[in-house]
Design a protein that fits this description.
340 residues; alpha/beta; Rossmann fold; Arc Repressor Mutant, subunit A; 3 domains
Length: 340
């Protein structure tokens, strides 16, 4: 079961529906370009990045900001374990590395530690996954700026995430940002259309010895909003349950749990979960114009604009041709309706 494997893909043969994006990303990386992959969760950013790295055959390390939101610590530990980078044992100090990597280190020595390790790393791609959850944006940008200026010819970053938290400061650095003026290429990864989604479901079900007709495929695509991660999860469940309706029910149940965790993460970031939730509750009832949301929420123009911007960057809402905002993810809408 390859297409319906729920882990991020690393073999380009099983990266469905992203051929153009893969070729573009590979071309950028060959040029040593630093890349930012933007898009909502479950869109396939990690798989795209890993497959591009595989295609090139470069060595790589991965930092998952969901597991550790301290960028310095994660980068140093990943480099320490990178094969051929710097061969030391945990809890042992090495010459010219004035810090014990098994415990805390101080900021003054971090640049020296990185310098020693990066010099030994060789040609390397660093994948920073879901970077919006990293803390201390300025410190992250300082380290990225240092690596960019010093090791651009050998160290390349691929950074994935949605446009919240530290990602916003990386994508749109202000004039006072350490990253200001550095050339970093942005790629936005979009949802699949119906034809691609149904084609994926048909190919995946054929692989596991099951069938999928267009009508059922279209229903699943609409319920799961063309997000590859949700469609893959459906396929995984379908391969085990054998019943498409039961598999869809189970997938939606699991997807709502993921949304719940995302909402908690938004709260942990301190970017206004209560007000964001209030906006989503209104939009879960019906699409609304900005002026209608002003009336229903009672927020000031500036406050509403700020939170609308956050929701758009998260990929949670969008504006339609009637200039009305609506929740773009049906899973999110269902979750909001069930958790008023």
């Amino acid at each position: 079961m390859k297409l319906f494997d729920t882990k991020p893909k690393s073999d380009p043969h099983f990266l469905y529906g992203r051929e153009k994006e893969l070729e573009l990303l590979v071309r950028y990386l060959k040029q040593n370009d630093w890349i930012i992959l933007l898009g909502p969760r479950r869109i396939g950013k990690t798989s795209l990045a890993k497959c591009a790295i595989t295609r090139l055959g470069y060595k790589s390390i991965t930092i998952d900001a969901r597991e550790n939101n301290n960028f310095e610590e994660s980068l140093l530990k990943s480099l320490k374990h990178h094969e051929g980078s710097f061969n030391i044992r945990a809890e042992v100090k090495a010459p010219h590395l004035p810090v014990n990597l098994g415990v805390d280190y101080n900021r003054k020595s971090s640049a020296e530690n990185l310098s020693v390790m990066l010099k030994k790393a060789g040609r390397l791609i660093v994948l920073v996954d879901e970077a919006q959850w990293l803390h201390n944006p300025r410190r992250v940008n300082m380290l990225l700026s240092y690596i960019y200026d010093t090791y651009y010819d050998k160290i390349t970053f691929v950074i994935t995430g949605s446009m919240i938290g530290v990602m916003k400061s990386i994508v749109d650095p202000g004039a006072r940002s350490p990253l200001y003026g550095r050339a970093i290429t942005k790629m936005e990864i979009e949802r699949w259309g119906s034809s691609v989604s149904i084609g994926f479901l048909k190919s995946g079900t054929k692989e596991v010895g099951l069938e999928m007709n267009d009508q059922i495929g279209l229903t699943i695509e609409e319920k799961l909003d063309g997000l590859p991660g949700w469609l893959t999860l459906f396929g995984y469940n379908y391969a085990h349950i054998k019943n498409p309706n039961a598999a869809l029910t189970e997938t939606i149940k699991e997807a709502k749990k993921v949304v719940s965790r995302e909402m908690k993460n938004i709260g942990d970031l301190g970017i206004g979960l209560e007000r964001i939730t209030e906006i989503l509750q209104d939009l879960a009832k019906e699409p609304m114009r900005f002026t209608d949301l002003l009336d229903s929420t009672g927020f000031s123009n500036a406050v509403l604009s700020r939170h609308i911007d956050t929701l758009e960057r998260l990929g949670y809402i969008e504006k339609d041709h009637r200039d009305e905002y609506l929740i773009s993810d049906p899973i999110l809408a269902a979750y909001i309706n069930e958790n008023p």
